[in-house]
Amino acid sequence: MNLYTRTGDKGDTSLIGGRVRKDDIRVEAYGTLDELNAFVGQAAAEMEKHEALHELVEEFTVIQHELFDCGADLAYARPGAPLKVNAEPAARLETQIDRYSAEAPELTRFILPGGSGAAALLHVCRTVCRRAERLVVTLASEHPANPEVQIYLNRLSDYFFAASRVANARLGVSDIEYVRSAEVFRKRDPK
After folding, report:
1. d(Cα 78, Cα 17) in Å, to the nearest integer?
2. 23-43: string of b/e by CB count within 10 Å (b at 16+)?
3. Are 99 and 55 in contact (CB under 8 A)?
4. pLDDT of 127-146, one tens digit each?
5. The whole model's pTM is what?
6. Which neighbouring-strand residues pair with 18?
7. CA nearest 110: which of 158, 178, 42, 167?
8. 52, 116 in Cβ contact below 8 A?
9. Which neighbouring-strand residues pair with 111?
10. Which of 8, 60, 62, 180 is deepest in the core (most CB within 10 A)?
11. Contact 166, 98 (CB under 8 A)
12. Under 8 Å between Cβ of 102 and 71
């Protein structure tokens, strides 16, 4: 099998159900998901070095499959095509976000991306995920798009934030507070 087809040499590419220019918003959106997926793989490789983070590595494999599902849903050029993403993945992420937020130190101020190498890479994932979400919002304003993809990406960026904080906590590295930040987060209510 050849890796090249020459069919895109003039600047267009195939979607499921048609061809579009390579700079089409749909291609930009699922291309950004592909970029995010590569960063997720890099973060997983970094976390693999730390026993305390192996649980996250397993979760990242699931997330990488879900990102492929999101990309597939965005690649449909015709309405009514079968979709892969439903509400379950976003709900699962909410459970993990709550768990990791409870494990990390209380947050009262904005923090800078960084701390450990693993947390820094998770912040890269978070920001690329936010960019992908913005592109999906634009896509959905112009073309039919699975709304569950947008919801999933919104949760996923929050997940990466919570995971970055728990990675720092488990590795014994403090988050770096933004020194000019006021206290912007409310204290947790004791239960």
Report:
1. 6
2. ebbbbbbbbbbeebbebbeeb
3. no
4. 999 999 999 999 999 988 99
5. 0.88
6. 15
7. 178
8. no
9. 177
10. 60
11. no
12. no
